[in-house]
Amino acid sequence: GVRTFSLTAQEGTTSFAPATDAGTATETWGFDGAYLGPTLRAERGEKVAVEVTNDLGETTSVHWHGMHLPAAMDGGPHQAVEPGGTWRPAWTIDQPAATLWYHPHPHGQTEEHVYRGLAGMFILDDDASRAADLPSTYGVDDVPVVVQDKVFDDDGQLELSDDGGEPGTLGGTVMTNGTVGAYQEVTTERVRLRLLNGSTARTYSLGFADRQLDLVATDGGLLDAPVRLDEVRLAPGERAEVVVEMAPGETTRLRSSEADLGGVAAPFAMGGNDAFDVLELRAADELAPSPEPAWGPSRHAAGDALHEQDASVTRTFDLDERTINGERMDMGRIDEVATAGATEIWEVRNTIPMPHSFHVHDVQFRVLTIDGEAPPPELAGPKDTVYLEPRRTYRLLMRFDDYTDDRLPYMYHCHMLLHEDEGMMGQFLVV
Ligand code: C2O
Ligand code: CU
Ligand code: CU
After folding, report:
1. Does 411 sit in the ligand 1 pocket, CB within 6 Å?
2. Is the CB–ligand 1 distance for residue 104 below 6 Å?
């Protein structure tokens, strides 16, 4: 069968009280609603078909971030949907279970479209994820947590800073799933939180003051074993799945504490160092038992594994303020051409004292080294987006599978969306 979805990008109004006065209607955009969009869900091997309708007054697109799919279905700047138009991508889910997401990608306008509210989660399931016995009742013990920051003007409307200052807009209000002061009633001993940094510029360090969390998955799927951490750092576009243990009757808070941004020069300290509450967890007086997560030797089918010795090509990417290898994005220029089936190493160098968030379409990569050292355990899982600390070199291992197109490219870019819109993006073909 085919799993069908329809998504309509539309305008609406949302109340963000208490960040705004009660009764203030903030103009927002959403998919099938006023703000954000529905969580889509599909199974490995399943065919999906989406009908995307644009009811906005301007051109947009919908990109499936983290999805392995043909370039024509990718939803990047080449798949623009005009006002009043409809786009019908279809593809087969062919990758491990993961927490992916979708958002617009119109050339030069991505920051604004995402900031106004166009984004949603796309969850993939498979046999390995079910066998792991993780909390999996959606909305009960398996909870989406879309973290975003906003600036409100005096009229309670969303404000996007347009002064071109680094690193883009940093809001003093942090909200979860579009709610300011969000909380979740917990009824089980364990809760799985699917964290998505859906902000345009801000990097978070998410954790609890009174307990650790178990990181079980990164952008592209489950880790080989859970990693116990105090907090998990997420740059724009990155995801993490964590499991938290709760005791009956207690309350605790997921918060963003002062993120260690990795030696960011003072002028670019990015207000990243504020602390915010993200989600309060309120446990009931009696909690249903949760199964002990069951970790097998490997969560991934052999076909998904990447091996460094298979790499036949190494490419280098130097990032400065707004360019990659000295170039700004040009939709008419192909920057790289990869061969289907080839395993490659991308050596990505952040040459400036300011961070970036590097994202590659179509693939999940593995971080081989950071400045020659093995990455920390939280970067050992499948990734499609990685925070680049200033002046460090990241070696990424990836393979371009089956889908070829000698005309339509995929993108790689900085996921700090002002950077992307100002040209920090390149295009690659898989042929
Ligand atoms: Cu999440 Cu090219 O984007
Ligand atoms: Cu993407
Ligand atoms: Cu950047």
Report:
1. yes
2. no
